[in-house]
Amino acid sequence: MSTTIRTTYREALRMGLRDALARDERAFLMGEDVAHYGGTYAVSKSLHGEFGEDRVRDTPLSESGFVGAGIGAAMNGMRPIVEVMTVNFSLLALDQIVNNAATLRHMSGGQIEVPVVIRMTTGAGRQLAAQHSHSLEVWYAHVPGLRVVAPATLADARGMLWTALQDPDPVVIFEHAMLLPMEGELDADAGAVDIDHAAVRRPGTQLSLITYGGSLHKCLEAAEVLAREGVDAEVLDLRTLRPLDVDAIVASVTKTRRALVVDEGWKTCSLAAEIMALIVEHAFYDLDAPLARVCSAEVPIPYPKHLEDAALPQVGRIVAAACEVLSR
Amino acid sequence: MSIESGEAHRLLWQMVRIRRFEEKCAELYSAGHIRGFLHLYIGEEAIAAGALPELRADDSILGTYREHGHALARGVPAGAIMAEMFGKREGCSGGRGGSMHLFDVSRRFFGGNAIVGGALPLAVGFALAEQMRGTDRVVACFFGEGAMAEGEFHESANLAALWKLPVMFLCENNLYAMGTALGRSQSNVDLCEKAHGYGMRALSVDGMDVLEVRDAMRRAVASVRAGEGPIFVEFRTYRFRAHSMFDPELYRDKAEVAAWRQRCPIERFVRTALEREWLDDAGVAAIESEVAAEIDEAVAIAHAGTWEPLEALERDVYVRAPAAPAARA
Ligand SMILES: Cc1ncc(C[n+]2csc(CCOP(=O)(O)OP(=O)(O)O)c2C)c(N)n1
Ligand SMILES: [Mg+2]
């Protein structure tokens, strides 16, 4: 039996970074306040002391500039890990990510490789108001040329980075801000994990709750509530948002015959919409009830707690929506 | 250095108001009434207090997430600002923005932007509109020195200078962008040179001296209003407190902070005002008690404020609510 250590999602991310910096001398971390400040969310705290200023490198406020520099360094043989403080500010770097990182391999007839990893925090829930609370994973998941992953567990927080660094193409990693303090047990010898497959986090037979990132834990809690009411729900963690693991989605839905998608993005043109479309394309005749989804309300996320709570997917809404699907 | 009667009183009152208001905010943050990000302006008060009165009511102001002082100095009522911090309906943004997103369009105070550099292109557009309408209104845009590394600064500066727009780029250089010292983020720390590079007039003033701020601002406003094109003003300043309430301040020496605290704009102005007999001790004490009463009232307004009902959550996303999908047959 392997031993485990008690740790947090934040520390697991740091272990992943430390491991990557130690194992590959081409790897370096760069971003705003990753070094002297200690990392905006303290993820990279202490790393610049361990690896020096060259490899844990503070940048000026220039999202487009330093993300572009990361892409260039990757094209030129390095393995940069670029931290954009949050998805909100990544909008200033969209041009670099979408027009350069995602296109260069194809446009160059396969001559160019962009093995860059771009990490960013995402999500709402801390009363930071509209400009600091976006969940725009789907913007990146829309783009061919990118791989998009969303670690929701300690093992994935620890292990996705190394695998992403081995990927010869650009990978965007979304770390949900609400998960950072999450505590739990992690295998002492935890290491790289696959970033190709979704994972069933709770097996069940009557309903599939399909989700990712910060909403995973809300779904697991909802499944507990449903279990007390005699409903056996399965929870599927997508893990990788592009390319989606269609087989896992279809396998789950063909088994349970009902599905509810939970996504912190806004409903219109959401990842949830894509997943529902995939189910309709691949498993329509296996369904016993119309599909449903719980997403964020169609508003810029408001500051006051009661309105923010009301705008985001919550356990109560997930349970209610699940009951609705089960009643059809 | 000239000063009109009553002006010394007004300048000190404004700085003290901002200082005490924010000290109260810090307290209310610890008590859990204010949440989210809270960025204090403490140490930098001379800039808002000295600069804002030089603008006219029909001029426009844009700021950052560190904008409590500017809002107060622009005349947004303290109660409306405090209620906003609480997230109450009575707040100047209806409670939906919080500390970083103070708006009061009736006073032409256009926020409260939490994206570094985000307001700069907006200010250029504001000024373009004024130019096209042929008004003599100016646009004042405050930002931190950190924003000068953003492309948005450079694109905005170029456009403003190219089109000779009536916009003022007011840079509050407090030497740090979160934990990143200016010298670790800029290849050239002479900020005025950057503005010169775009053919823009630029000056640097001591932002800890409210009278120097006032004088520089007065001249700068007059020149922009007279049609001489955009101007860049660097206010050299320092924030005495952490970047936000989440900042453990690992990146700077306590001794450096202490040295800057010696240059506190309020203490410094009180000394001058007493020496030159613009004010006496009783006058200074009266300001403190007047401000204390105003802040007590602001806090009471915030506490008494109401929560927006949940049914209003999706209101104000569009002017008209999008039509509900037609019911299925
Ligand atoms: C585009 C963008 N990138 C990063 C951030 C995170 N952030 C918030 S404030 C700040 C520092 C800005 O420093 P400066 O412009 O000097 O203003 P100051 O806080 O010193 O007043 C950073 C990096 C942000 N809000 N927006
Ligand atoms: Mg600064």
Question: How would you explain this protein's 3D organization?
Answer:
- Chain A has 328 residues and is α/β, with parallel strands linked by helices.
- Chain A folds into 2 domains: 4-187, Thiamin diphosphate (ThDP)-binding fold, Pyr/PP domains (Rossmann fold), CATH 3.40.50; 199-326, Rossmann fold, CATH 3.40.50.
- In chain A, 38% of the residues lie in helices and 22% in strands.
- Chain A has helices spanning 9-23, 47-51, 63-75, 87-90, 94-101, 104-107, 137-141, 154-166, 215-228, 246-256, 271-283, 305-311, 315-327; strands spanning 4-8, 27-31, 56-58, 79-86, 117-122, 147-149, 171-176, 183-187, 199-202, 207-211, 233-237, 240-242, 259-266, 292-296.
- By secondary structure, chain B is of the alpha/beta class.
- Chain B has one domain (7-176, 187-299): Thiamin diphosphate (ThDP)-binding fold, Pyr/PP domains (Rossmann fold, 3-Layer(aba) Sandwich), CATH 3.40.50.970.
- Helices cover 43% and strands 12% of the residues of chain B.
- Chain B has 11 helices and 8 strands.
- A 6-stranded parallel sheet of chain B has the order 2-1-3-4-8-7, with helices on both faces.
- The mean pLDDT of chain B is 95.
- The chains are: A alpha/beta (328), B alpha/beta (329).
- The structure holds thiamine diphosphate and magnesium ion.
- Thiamine diphosphate sits between chains B (66, 114-116, 144-147, 172, 174, 176-178, 243) and A (32, 61, 63, 85, 89, 92).
